[in-house]
Inverse folding.
């Protein structure tokens, strides 16, 4: 369908389509580059935020650890004897450190000489006031809990797993405990601080993550410490959540986080079915992990909006480009259209039709100039063709006349002597061109002698035909004067060779039959030897006689030969167009094939032999064009009629 459009529409449409493809490629490339840059900036921002949060958490952890470790060291040095002293120390510690919700010293029984078996002074905040308490008097004895027994046995500080303190309004808490030893390495107890983690939730919520982004913390075993969904905090861990959602990606993420690894990955369908990017890293001091999620839809909104605006601008630019392209296309193709309309008249034969005048030096102007030059050359060529056609027609007419004259020079009426019964004669000539150089002739200068002649002039066309006519004239004249075939050929040779500036020649076979007794005498001037078909034998060549080409050299002699014909004997005279006939593969018909065909046709009359040979030649050639004339003459001798004394065919002939 595109090929059926005009050049203007094809040119304009192609340019517009190319512009549209380029515009789409530019927008797509810009979108890809913007997305890549945004991802790079987002990753840098995510790492910066995670480092800031980690630093904030670790600063609190370091401060608490130093405070508690310092408190334990002071206890080992001072070894206070009165509980009041311990409470005052704890109150000062909680009052000075805002991160600490409460502080306690859990004593080993009688470590400091107290009468109580178990004592654990504890000070905590409550409505901006400090409240004293003694954990040793509670039912849940502290000396069997992990925060006490683990530091005692490991002799190392311990961060507890996050927990909710029901006595403190179900607040999210975490405790730091450190063992206390005296200078003699005796275990005195455990100093501990309780820290509220509510500030962590506030810290993570204050991060600039957009509307759909959020951050969360995992404990060492994968439990959610902070999360936007408060139903998950301390109630779910990332592994149980992955099992509920049948989400292996979430399980693999949890495994990476609890192992303390870090990364920035594109993550889809993990968090509430959203696609986006996730950064995760560990907090070495606590063993926790932080995750920060950035949703793709919100972050790509600006890039998508930019791409849409570029698309709108490009589309309106494309609409403005349409008339410009069509104007340019028409300005280029309009001269071509006018030129095409003019060339239709030229193609119809009107060489005088006006051609458009196109100014300029561009290709269209040059094309128009070429058409003007072509029209002039066409006029000259047509005039030359008309002159050549006239001359060719004149030559063809002359050739037709020459062919008619040539064919009138050879006998065409058969049987030529209808009142003679002692022989049968038939001949055929088929020129390769309009006129040729082959000829045959026969005549009876008296009732007892029959002359037969066949010849082939060198060359083709009118010169050969004229040379043939002259040769035939001389033959007919000398036959009337001479009784010897050899003398006839000698006189013809001398006449043709005299003043033969064209160096033409002719091959001639000339023979005479004495009809009363059947004696056949002949002479050959360089011609193909005829075939002899005896009535009761095989087909063979006539014996050869010495004789050169006729018309080439003067004063030549031609030898004669003699043969007595029996009733039913046949002579086959031919030119080389028979034996040299070729087929499509350039094979010659040849003497052997000619002899075999004559052997098969020997039972036919003279007409049958000639027509049979012509059919064999046509089948062999298979339509191949022949380069030489084909001439054949057949004479069959029946002998004299002895019953009445007159020449004639016998009853059983």
């Amino acid at each position: 369908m595109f090929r059926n459009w005009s050049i203007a529409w094809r040119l304009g449409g192609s340019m517009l389509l190319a512009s549209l493809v380029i515009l789409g490629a530019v927008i797509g490339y810009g979108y890809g580059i913007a997305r890549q840059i945004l991802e790079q900036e987002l990753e840098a921002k995510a790492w910066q935020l995670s480092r800031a949060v980690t630093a904030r958490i670790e600063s609190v952890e370091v401060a608490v650890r130093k405070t508690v470790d310092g408190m334990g060291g002071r206890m080992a040095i001072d070894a206070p004897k009165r509980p009041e002293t311990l409470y005052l120390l704890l109150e000062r510690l909680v009052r000075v450190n805002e991160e600490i919700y409460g502080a306690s010293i859990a004593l080993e029984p009688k470590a400091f000489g107290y009468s109580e078996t178990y004592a654990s002074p504890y000070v905590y905040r409550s409505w901006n006031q400090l409240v004293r308490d003694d954990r040793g008097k509670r039912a849940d004895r502290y000396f069997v809990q992990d925060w006490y027994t683990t530091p005692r046995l490991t002799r190392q500080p311990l961060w507890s797993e996050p927990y909710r303190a029901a006595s403190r309004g179900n607040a999210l808490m975490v405790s730091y405990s450190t063992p206390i030893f005296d200078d003699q390495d005796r275990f005195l107890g455990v100093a501990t601080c309780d820290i509220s983690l509510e500030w962590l939730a506030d810290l993570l919520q204050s991060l600039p993550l957009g509307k759909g982004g959020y951050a969360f913390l995992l404990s060492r075993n994968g439990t959610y410490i902070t999360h936007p969904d408060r139903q998950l905090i301390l109630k779910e861990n990332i592994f149980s959540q992955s099992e509920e959602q049948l989400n292996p990606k979430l399980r693999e993420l949890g495994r990476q986080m609890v192992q303390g690894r870090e990364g920035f990955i594109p993550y889809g369908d993990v968090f509430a079915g959203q696609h986006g990017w996730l950064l995760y890293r560990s907090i070495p001091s606590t063993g926790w992990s932080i995750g920060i999620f950035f949703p793709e839809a919100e972050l790509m909104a600006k890039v998508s909006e930019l791409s849409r605006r570029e698309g709108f601008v490009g589309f309106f630019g494309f609409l403005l480009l349409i008339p410009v392209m069509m104007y340019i296309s028409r300005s280029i193709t309009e001269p071509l259209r006018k030129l095409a309309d003019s060339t239709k008249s030229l193609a119809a034969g009107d060489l005088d039709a006006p051609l458009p005048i196109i100014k300029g030096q561009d290709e269209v102007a040059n094309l128009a100039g070429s058409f003007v030059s072509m029209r002039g050359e066409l006029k000259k060529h047509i005039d030359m063709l008309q002159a050549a056609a006239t001359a060719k027609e004149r030559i063809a007419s002359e050739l037709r006349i020459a062919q008619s004259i040539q064919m009138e020079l050879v006998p065409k009426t058969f049987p030529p002597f209808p009142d003679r019964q002692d022989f049968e004669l038939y001949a055929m000539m088929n020129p390769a061109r309009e006129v040729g150089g082959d000829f045959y002739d026969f005549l009876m200068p008296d009732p007892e002698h029959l002359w037969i002649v066949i010849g082939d002039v060198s060359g083709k066309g009118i010169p050969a035909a004229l040379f043939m006519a002259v040769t035939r004239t001389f033959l007919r004249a000398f036959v009337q004067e001479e009784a010897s075939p050899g003398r006839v050929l000698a006189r013809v040779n001398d006449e043709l060779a005299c003043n033969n500036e064209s160096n033409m020649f002719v091959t001639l076979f000339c023979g005479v039959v004495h009809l009363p007794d059947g004696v056949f005498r002949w002479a050959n001037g360089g011609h193909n030897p005829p075939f002899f078909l005896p009535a009761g034998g095989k087909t063979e060549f006539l014996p050869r006689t010495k004789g050169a080409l006729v018309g080439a050299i003067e004063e030549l002699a031609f030898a004669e030969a003699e043969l007595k014909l029996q009733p039913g004997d046949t002579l086959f005279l031919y030119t080389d167009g028979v034996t040299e006939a070729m087929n499509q593969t350039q094979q010659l018909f040849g003497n052997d094939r000619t002899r075999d065909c004559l052997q098969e046709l020997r039972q036919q009359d003279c007409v049958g032999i000639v027509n049979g040979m012509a059919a064999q030649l046509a089948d062999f050639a298979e339509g191949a064009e022949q380069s030489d004339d084909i001439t054949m003459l057949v004479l069959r001798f029946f002998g004299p009629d002895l019953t009445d004394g007159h020449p004639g065919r016998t009853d059983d002939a």
